[in-house]
Amino acid sequence: MNVIPHIIDGQETEPASGLRFASVDPWTREPWGEIALGGSEDADRAVRAARRAFDEGPWPRLGYAERGTLRHHAPHPDPGLLGEPEVLVHAT
After folding, report:
1. What is the pLDDT of residues 39-75, one digit of tens each?
2. Phi-psi group of 49: left, alpha or beta (phi > 0 → left; psi -120 to 50 → alpha; rest → beta)
3. Rounded to whole angstroms, how far apart are CA atoms 21 and 31?
4. Distance of CA 87 to CAs 20, 26, 69, 80, 84, Å?
5. Rounded to whole angstroms, what are the CA distances from 76 to 10, 72, 80, 83?
6. Secondary structure (DSSP) of 48-65
7. What pTM does this model have?
8. What are the extents of the domains in the chain?
9. Distance CA 67, CA 73 (A)
């Protein structure tokens, strides 16, 4: 079974609560992965890491053209990596 952690500050990390939820393939109705269930502590850590990366990283010093080039060349998810689109989940 796939185990999907959070990625915070460039590192895979478990949720502060240690909780996960099962993601079910709607076609087979079988679980295909366990997803890290984030809470407010995880959100706070992610926001602090993003703020630090923005303040201390190169992004604010780049010009518009450089930002556009980076965004254009940023890796895009491979549609085949996760299988068919209907197995993707959105947790609220």
Report:
1. 999 999 999 998 998 898 888 888 888 888 877 766 6
2. alpha
3. 10
4. 17, 6, 32, 12, 6
5. 17, 9, 12, 15
6. HHHHHHHHHSSGGGS-HH
7. 0.64
8. 2-74
9. 10
